[in-house]
Structure formats: structure tokens, C-alpha cells
Amino acid sequence: MVRKSAVYGLLGLLVAGMCGCGDSENAKEVSLEKKEALTRQEKPAGGKSFRIAVGGMITPKEGFAYYRRFLDYIGEKLGQHVEFVDREDYAEINALIRTRRVDAAFVCGGPYVDGQEAFGMELLVAPQAYGGTVYYSYIIVSKDSQMQHLEDLRGKTFAFTDPLSNTGKLVPTYMLAKMNESPDSFFKKYIFTKSHDKSIQAVAQGIVSGAAVDSLIWEYAHRTNQKFTAKTRIIKKSPPYGIPPVVVRPSLDPKIKRRLREIYVNAHNDKTGREILKGMMIDKFVPIDDGAYDSIREMKTWMKKRSVAGKAK
Known about the structure:
D-Maltodextrin-Binding Protein, domain 2; 14 strands
């Protein structure tokens, strides 16, 4: 159970140190710091913007500039103003897509599965990164820690990211469930940081004992700025899961959808697109089949059945 006083204490440490997916009722969302506000593009007079959302956990803060540039690139190719919609909460992004307030989004695999089931959210493309279209959940601890296995985190403090995150919440919760444990029974305290880079930072600074993070984010940070990743160590790597995709609202005009897909999959073929993708640590965008996310569905189904069985006892 997360005690309120303990969470406030952690929050104070987090703020002081960082300045210069089934959810428990006891879990507290802790915002370590707000991302720097991005200057919004001005909407053309009398024109309509094409709106693309980027989940706050898709990239470290340092990578947002490249995503902004890529959306501008898409706008140039599409011949239409593209508005960058920055959100940290996956549930909010799904709601924006469902209500047609955004046209497309970069999302996590877990929210895609939820959105596809709830209202027909559609896959557009997926990034190919580090040679593949999969990613992993990394369980990390401090480099100087003596812990070697997930079991060693029993009774310790832990950081999840977003309640709907696949690698940052669902996968580690599934790992615990396979041990007949839950976050409440296993950890002394746990928090939600709302982004993978903040979770890495929390572990590096000793604010929490461990965290579950997206392998793509950890690898990106480790290749661009090792300030915090160098102070962490991976003690468990999950099986591979379908990489966080680009999705569109189901009611999007099929012609625009086809054109948008063409822009994404051909971006690596021209100099400007290739340069931006390099900064995003993406090889290229490729079509991807819905079946790539079946393993996430299987985890969710297993967790639901286990929850129902537990309540029936």
C-alpha cells in the first residue's frame, strides 16, 4: 500500500532532485516535473489543422524537438498544417482519438489494444528501431545496487510510468502476477512518474529502488546522454512486444490515410526525412499487422481472468 505521507515525501525528494495498465486504488500518480511547453504552431487563417498527438512517454524530453520537426515534415508533404498535440496521459490521448479531436497519434502498444477494442482505433504504421519492430520492458535498479533479480525488489520502492503503459505498468504487473504477487503485496511503495525518462532519473538518483521502463527510451537516452542511464543497471528484460505504433481515428478519410501512410513509409528515402528519423533513433516507418499486438492482448486477457477468479473466491 502507498502511504500518503510517504508519497508526499517521495514527491518532495523528486522535485528537489530534478530541478536546475489494472490499476490499484492505492497507487498515486506523481508528476516529477512538467515537460517544457512547446510553442504551438499558429493555425492558418480560415484553414483546418491536421492534429497529431505524441504521448509523453514515447520519447525522452530531449527527443520531442525531433518529433516536432517530423510533424512539420508531414505537414509539408501533406500540404496541410499539422498541429503538434502534446499529452502525458495515454487515457487522454485515446479519448482525443475517440472523440475525433485528434486525427493521428504516436501511442504505446497497450493503449492501442485498448483503443482498438473500445472504438476501432486503427494502425497506420510502426517505427522500425534498432533493426526491429519490437521493444521490451526493462526492470532497472541502481548501478551500485546489490540486487540481481526482480525478486530482490520485494519490500522496496518502485516506479511505474502511466497506468496504461505496456512496458511501464502492464508487463511488470504481469510478471508479479506470475509470482502470485501484486504491486500492493510486493512493493513497500510505488509511484507513477508519467514518463520513462523520469523513472530512469528516479532510479539513478536513488529516489526509488527500481523501475519498469521502455527499452526504446532507455536505449535512446543511453546513446544520446548517459547522465542517468549510466547510473542504472538492467536486471530483467521482458519478452518482445509489438513496438509502439502510429494510429489514426477510424473515421479518418481513407484518401488522407493512404497519403499519410505513404509519407511515413517513404520518409527515410529523402535527405530531410532521413535526418529527422536519425534524431528520433528510428530506422524507418513500416506497415505493421494488428497481430503484432496479440501478446499484449493475451497478457490483458490473462490478468482479467485472474482478477475475476480472485474475486470469486
